[in-house]
């Protein structure tokens, strides 16, 4: 049995679920009890997702994805030759290392209590997006003609990336390959499923967060 501890709204959780859908794996999602001793015992870093597979515990989403590829190599989401496999790994690494500032920018726009250097985050994100644009394939999916692990990472990131437009930031539309890619994946049923799940979870999270904020300011 494969259990994934995490929330559907997390892009790091969603990439593993998307991989599971693409490979036809049965993955049970279980809420992550972040901050509890039980969760820290599974992952001392304290972040979701954590995978549990027949007693084996594994944190870090990209390592989890690689583990699932090793367990279930067919159909491959890495690729059929070294170049495809390298690109399927390069795009996730670019997203994680250079495009994660997106989350700080979105949070800064909605949470007045969150302090971040917006200009620095924006500059870093632009650098990451330039790299992403460079590595993206001009046709087909992100790293090859078919869906790959690169899409499993990029599609959940785009759920939040598409929200940049809501805060008056047209960054994504300035990239031709990324814009073409967004149109392509919008028609993909697996991407649609992941975005729908993320949207439900995100809306529920925001409703609760706003209620908590209102309650806190009423008692202040
Ligand atoms: N490098 C980690 C990042 C995971 C991550 O940042 N997860 C967030 C949720 S989106 C989290 O658990 N945050 C809780 C916290 O930082 O306390 C991975 O790829 O799994």
Question: Can you characterise this structure?
Answer:
The chain has 220 residues and is an alpha+beta fold. The chain folds into two domains: 2-71, Glutaredoxin; 82-196, Glutathione S-transferase Yfyf (Class Pi), Chain A, domain 2. Helix content is 59%, strand content 7%. The protein contains nine helices and four strands; from the N terminus they run βαβαββααααααα. The protein has a four-stranded mixed β-sheet, with helices on one face. A hairpin with a 2-residue loop joins strand 3 and strand 4. Helix 1 crosses helix 7 (149-161). The longest helix has 31 residues, at 189-219. Glutathione binds next to helix 3. Glutathione is lined by residues 10, 12, 34, 46-49, 60-62.
Structural class of the secondary structure composition? alpha+beta
Total strands: the figure is 4
Q: What is the multimeric organization of the chains shown?
A: single chain
CATH architecture term of the largest domain: Up-down Bundle
Question: Unreliable stretches, pLDDT < 50, 5 or more residues?
Answer: none
Helical segment tally?
A: 9
| Average pLDDT level | 97
Q: How many domains, in number, for the residues? A: 2
CATH topology name of the largest domain: Glutathione S-transferase Yfyf (Class Pi), Chain A, domain 2
Helical proportion? 55-70%
Bound molecules: glutathione
The N- to C-terminal Cα distance equals 46 Å
Tell me the strand order in the biggest sheet: 2-1-3-4
Specify the CATH class of the largest domain. Answer: Mainly Alpha
Largest sheet data: 4 strands, mixed
Q: What percentage of the residues does DSSP assign to strands (E)? A: 5-15%
Radius of gyration from the alpha-carbon trace, in angstroms: 18 Å
**What is the string of SSEs from the N terminus onward?**
EHEHEEHHHHHHH
Shape: globular
Organism: Azospirillum griseum
Keywords: Transferase
Protein name: Glutathione S-transferase family protein
GO molecular function, one term: transferase activity
């Amino acid at each position: 049995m494969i259990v994934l501890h995490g929330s559907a709204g997390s892009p790091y959780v969603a990439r593993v679920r998307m991989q599971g859908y693409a490979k036809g794996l049965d993955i049970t999602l279980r809420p992550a009890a972040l901050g509890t001793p039980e969760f820290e015992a599974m992952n001392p870093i304290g972040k979701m997702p954590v995978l549990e597979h027949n007693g084996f515990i594994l944190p870090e989403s990209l390592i989890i994805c690689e583990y699932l590829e090793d367990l279930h190599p067919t159909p491959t989401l890495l690729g059929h030759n070294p170049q495809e496999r390298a690109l399927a790994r390069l795009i996730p690494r670019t997203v994680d290392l250079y495009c994660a500032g997106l989350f700080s920018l979105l949070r800064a726009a909605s949470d007045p209590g969150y302090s971040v250097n917006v200009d620095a985050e924006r500059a870093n994100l632009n650098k990451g997006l330039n790299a992403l644009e460079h590595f993206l394939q001009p046709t087909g999916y992100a790293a090859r003609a078919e869906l790959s692990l690169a899409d499993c990472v990029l599609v959940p990131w785009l759920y939040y990336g598409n929200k940049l437009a809501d805060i008056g930031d047209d960054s994504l539309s300035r990239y031709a390959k990324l814009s073409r890619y967004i149109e392509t994946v919008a028609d993909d049923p697996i991407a649609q499923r992941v975005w729908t799940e993320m949207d439900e979870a995100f809306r529920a999270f925001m409703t609760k967060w706003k209620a908590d904020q209102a309650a806190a300011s009423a008692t202040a």
